[in-house]
């Protein structure tokens, strides 16, 4: 734990302009500084630094925060790692107040050091020992160059029972630490350890400059598992790490896209072929945590580049379902002719591969095609009805009315059913994806005026209040403001935020899921204004009271307008 006083001292002493200026060329613009945003590609500067408020903000992509947040985003560090880096530069000593947390941090550092020693051992065997010849031959057959292999720090664990354990023991490493790192397993019949990785090409899993764990590809001996991965440890959790993210982060920020592939060598091969935005999960299925990691790295969109075999399509379906459930923009690319992704990239070059990525199928459409694939026009009625029920949630999740219309048409054609019947089955008998057409009867009443800009701004401010902390959330709930929102979309977003147990750790990730670009930018701007202005709870309570009073006046006027319109229509 780092005390609030230490954090405040750090924020007071660190010059955010100096921290940002190491990465971004800044120019004076009034009291602020401006430059090109390092988190997304742009030609016109929209990135601003306010030295007085010690904040940065990009009006293009919405990135915003203080010096700590900047280091976290630009270098992919955790909060503590960013604080420690800035504290070292500023000469501030951070002391953990919690002895237990201090002990855990010390343990994680020790595990990272053991992994680093193991990594060097595996590298020496691969490049310097005769037993590494089988691994060198394997890399050559896979067209992995020596330069690439050394850049990724690949190694080889010889097919011996305890070569690593003995090497680490001779270096004075405690056997319990070797076991805790997942590098060795206790013997059953006698004391001692035997190596977990034997006869395997080793792939270090790294992040923030540390070796967290290993993957191993079997080359010698017998095993049911072609690939073996380190177990979870105090330093490493499979579901909380993306392989290759340390090398892909800069490209992901530049493209705004993270390419998810199936395995370690798909990542390595794509990077070698010049497609450097590829990452992979570490021997586990896609999770929401993986999506969060990609978004924190700067991905505004995900593309799943999986093989076209049964396992690859199943993995793509699972990943698409996770992305859809979190409203993350995602697409699916299956390489042509049964090729591996890196084979395609080498054959057509990185530029044309990017064109394939740009033309990849939307994840929702991929899911719809997968759900419709087993069914045909000649299928039994019950099977066709069940198919419509299965795809209903996919169709309803489409981002706009036209896409929903086209999906409904596709379902209707596939099961040979009337389009309107399918529409009613998906959206309900009294609901429609499009407004009903009135062929006869009186002219429709004059529409109510467009949304008042001041009302919209106030509602966006309230959403930003919710994202600030528990006290502000309680104030918003107590005020009854949400029931008075003019925008259904904003009210639904606010209710979903209040429905979670705690405020989101990163509010910008939540706002990044808002589909409408203008609305998203406006919400980011309000969040930036509140953060940089240091809004206090009494100010928020007054703003909520004022909004409710104005909203009641607006609702009363709208009610009168509707009654007048109804009387006109009857006449």
Any chance you could write out the topology, listing elements then pairs?
Blueprint: H1 4-13, H2 16-21, E1 27-29, E2 32-35, E3 47-50, E4 55-58, E5 64-65, H3 67-75, H4 79-90, H5 99-128, H6 133-141, H7 146-151, E6 155-157, H8 163-170, H9 175-180, E7 184-186, E8 193-195, E9 200-207, E10 210-218, E11 227-229, E12 242-243, H10 245-255, E13 257-261, H11 264-272, E14 278-281, H12 288-296, E15 301-305, H13 310-325, E16 330-333, H14 341-358, E17 361-362, H15 363-372, H16 381-396, H17 401-415, H18 419-427, H19 453-466, H20 470-479, H21 488-498, H22 507-511, H23 517-533, H24 537-570
Parallel strand pairs: 13-14, 13-15, 15-16
Antiparallel strand pairs: 1-2, 2-3, 3-4, 4-5, 6-9, 7-8, 9-10, 10-11, 12-14, 16-17
Helix pairs in contact: 3-4, 11-14, 13-15, 15-16, 16-17, 16-18, 17-18, 19-21, 19-23, 19-24, 20-24
